[in-house]
Amino acid sequence: MEGVLIQTEEKKAFVDDKEGGSELIVFNDDIHTFVYVIDCLQTICKLSKEQAVTCTNIIHYKGLCIVKHGSYDVLKQMCIELEKKGLICEVR
After folding, report:
1. At CA 10, angle to CA 87 and CA 22, rounded to 5?
2. What is the pTM of this model?
3. Three-state SS for 69?
4. Which domains are delineated in the chain?
C-alpha cells in the first residue's frame, strides 16, 4: 500500500492519500487492547502492520489519530465497520 507520512501533533502516522479530502479519525478508549485495534486497522482500513502499530500508538498516547484520507463514502463505510467492532471513530 502506498501512503504518505503526515505529522499528527508530535507523532507521525502513515495514511492513504489517494482521492478525496476526508479523514477517518479513530479515538482512544479504555476498553480495547493494542492487538485488537491493530487487527481492526489492518483488516478494515487495509493498513500495513507498521502503519497500524504506529496509528495505534498515536491513538493511545494522543487520544486520536487520522488513520486514513480518502473519499467520504469509502471512509464512512470503514467508520461503520470500525464502530461495529466497538471502536470510536468519525469521518471529517
Report:
1. 50
2. 0.79
3. strand
4. 4-91 (3.30.1390.10)
